[in-house]
């Protein structure tokens, strides 16, 4: 049960001052809380035996008020320190988790659902935080505070009455052990269901246009309803066990009260105990109710925290598929890009995706990559972006092997426009300046012109400050692609990679963008993958891929002269262009 505290040992060492102060003040508060019952017993015995003067009574009242005020002040401080520490832990864990997400490569996201990752970053971290705050409180109250009360009851009042009143305690320990194991299992299942629900909501919201287009609203509602019922049932399964804690504690504590009152009255009758001591004993016994309930809460919180921490640790324990070497090259420059006898296979693929790849791109050149769908065009770009461990053969950036460079250095040379543009829920200006937040207004306007987007700004409701919505929902496909291109151009990378990034624009706009790139990218390397051959006609070198193998290569004119796949595709696209015009 307490293994979660061992797992969080690093945090307790980090915040030991905060926890030492909080627990120390908790102990002082516990001692102060035991004084009022003792005073009440003294008052009752004093009045009963007519040994109490009015002055002594007034003094007792003053002492009581002072203790209450001091206890209030101390409680404020320990509460602030203890629960403040729990929020610090949540911030640290969330920062670690977010940093981990940013380091992970596609394989990680292929194996983990987005909704489940969101659940781990929210609900699970909340449960872990609760363990470091309320969990420590219940641990203290169910152990040290309980031991102090029992010791005072035994030493100052009657050890025989104390022993008799605590007879139900073993039953409490047994019940808590059984409940704790069940809660751990059921809470894990509930959190898994919540992660699946998150994933369903995310998919539904992002795919709402498709759902409406196929008139699947009712089907989606039904699917969501069934998932919410599953989440509800699994959470109710947890609650059913949690609900047994308090009544079980009350019944067993009730037995303790019954024994305390019955056996205590017997001891008073035989003059082994005064009436005031019996009243004080029963007040102490009442103070034991919370520590006993806290014992149940402790099991509940620790099991929840342990289950959640295991889920978060599982995510954090996932090793990045691509990591920096122990020693990386420091003196480097991206003078050229070169693949030599390169071969690559995706981890989940059953066939080789790139084979015997030999490409050499000098600085300032433009490489066009064309081929059928699934031929390996994007795969080449993913090698340069280090999204997967490198295959066999060599990939060089300048004079160094690509994996000899740190990931940060290698990626700092590159600008990437993916097939599906990724825009953030911010303004168009913010999305473009994501490429270079320090860019001037002149650089921003130049990037807009080069991406052929400047002409669209006047038609947007708020110009550059127009919010694009989640994933650019407020923009058309062509506009999203051009904003992405402008973002890459404003970064002014040494190597620009356009991954079929002109598929949603018309032929005229495509030529404007290509002309803009040619003007902007002098002396810098550009790699363009596309299905539309007009986008690579100007390239210094073009390769044609088929199932990961280069089947043709050369300039546009050389490839047309060979009358192979490239020539056939070019003629077909020219006919389509003429027919459409």
Describe, in plain words, how this protein is organized in 3D:
It is a single chain. By secondary structure, the chain is of the alpha/beta class. Helix content is 64%, strand content 10%. The protein has 21 helices and 10 strands. The protein has helices at 3-7, 9-14, 16-33, 35-48, 54-103, 106-111, 114-157, 159-165, 169-206, 208-213, 217-269, 275-287, 289-316, 377-384, 407-412, 428-433, 441-450, 477-491, 507-520, 556-562, 565-580, and strands spanning 336-344, 354-362, 366-371, 392-397, 400-401, 414-417, 495-499, 525-529, 541-546, 549-554. The strands form 2 sheets. Strands 6-7-8-3-9-10 form a 6-stranded mixed beta sheet, with helices on both faces. Helix 7 runs antiparallel to helix 12 and helix 7 runs antiparallel to helix 13. The longest helix is centred in the middle third of the chain and has 53 residues, at 217-269. The N and C termini lie far apart (73 Å). The mean pLDDT is 86.
Sum up the overall morphology in one term. Answer: elongated
Strand order of the largest sheet: 6-7-8-3-9-10
Number of separate helices: 21
Say how many strands there are.
10
- Give a short account of the largest sheet: 6 strands, mixed
Work out the oligomeric state of the chains in this entry: single chain
Strand content: 5-15%
Helix content range: 55-70%
Give average pLDDT, whole number: 86
Rounded to an integer in angstroms, the radius of gyration calculated over CA atoms is 36 Å
Distance separating the two termini:
73 Å
By secondary-structure content and strand pairing, the structural class works out as alpha/beta
Low-confidence stretches: none
């Amino acid at each position: 049960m307490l293994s979660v505290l061992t797992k969080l040992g690093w945090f307790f060492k980090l915040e030991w001052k905060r926890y030492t102060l909080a627990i120390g003040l908790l102990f002082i508060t516990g001692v102060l809380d035991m004084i009022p019952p003792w005073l009440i017993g003294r008052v009752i015995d004093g009045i009963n035996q007519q040994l109490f003067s009015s002055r002594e009574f007034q003094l007792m009242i003053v002492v009581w008020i002072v203790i209450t005020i001091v206890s209030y002040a101390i409680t404020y401080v320990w509460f602030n320190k203890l629960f403040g520490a729990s929020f610090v832990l949540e911030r640290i864990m969330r920062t670690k988790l977010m940093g981990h997400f940013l380091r992970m490569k596609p394989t990680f996201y292929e194996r983990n659902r987005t909704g489940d990752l969101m659940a781990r970053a929210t609900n699970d971290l909340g449960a872990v935080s609760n363990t470091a705050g309320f969990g420590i409180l219940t641990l203290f109250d169910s152990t040290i505070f309980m031991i102090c009360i029992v010791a005072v009851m035994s030493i100052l009042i009657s050890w025989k009455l104390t022993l008799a009143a605590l007879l139900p305690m073993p039953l409490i320990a047994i019940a808590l052990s059984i409940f704790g194991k069940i809660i751990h299992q059921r809470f894990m299942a509930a959190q898994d269901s919540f992660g699946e629900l998150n994933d369903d909501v995310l998919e539904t919201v992002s795919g709402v246009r498709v759902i409406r287009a196929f008139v699947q609203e009712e089907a989606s509602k039904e699917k969501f309803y069934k998932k919410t019922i599953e989440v509800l049932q699994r959470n109710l399964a947890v609650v059913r066990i949690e609900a047994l804690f308090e009544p079980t504690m009350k019944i067993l504590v009730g037995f303790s009260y019954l024994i305390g009152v019955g056996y205590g009255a017997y001891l008073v009758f035989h003059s082994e105990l005064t009436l005031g001591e019996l009243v004080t004993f029963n007040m102490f016994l009442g103070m034991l109710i919370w520590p006993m309930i806290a014992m149940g809460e402790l099991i509940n919180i620790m099991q929840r925290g342990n289950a959640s921490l295991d889920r978060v640790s599982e995510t954090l324990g996932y090793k990045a598929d691509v990591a920096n070497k122990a020693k990386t090259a420091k003196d480097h420059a991206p003078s050229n890009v070169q693949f030599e006898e390169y071969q690559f296979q995706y981890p989940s693929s059953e066939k080789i995706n790139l084979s015997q790849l030999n490409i050499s791109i000098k600085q300032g050149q433009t490489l066009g990559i064309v081929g059928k769908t699934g031929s390996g065009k994007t795969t080449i770009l993913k090698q340069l972006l280090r999204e997967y461990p490198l295959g066999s053969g060599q990939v060089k950036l300048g004079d160094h092997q690509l994996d000899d460079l740190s990931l940060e250095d290698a990626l700092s040379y590159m600008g990437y426009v993916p097939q599906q543009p990724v825009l953030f829920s911010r303004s168009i200006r913010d999305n473009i300046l994501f490429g270079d937040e320090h860019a001037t207004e002149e650089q921003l306007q130049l990037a807009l012109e080069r991406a052929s987007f400047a002409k669209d700004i006047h038609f947007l409701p708020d110009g550059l400050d127009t919010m694009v919505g989640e994933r650019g929902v407020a923009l058309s496909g062509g506009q999203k692609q051009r904003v992405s291109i402008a973002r890459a151009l404003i970064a002014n990378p040494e190597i620009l990679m356009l991954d079929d990034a002109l598929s949603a624009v018309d032929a005229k706009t495509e030529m404007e963008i290509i002309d803009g790139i040619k003007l902007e990218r002098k002396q810098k390397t550009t790699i363009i993958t596309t299905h539309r051959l007009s986008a690579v006609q100007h390239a210094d070198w073009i390769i044609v891929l088929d199932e990961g193998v280069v089947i043709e290569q050369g300039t546009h004119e050389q490839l047309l002269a060979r009358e192979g796949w490239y020539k056939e595709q070019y003629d077909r696209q020219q006919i389509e262009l003429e027919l459409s015009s």
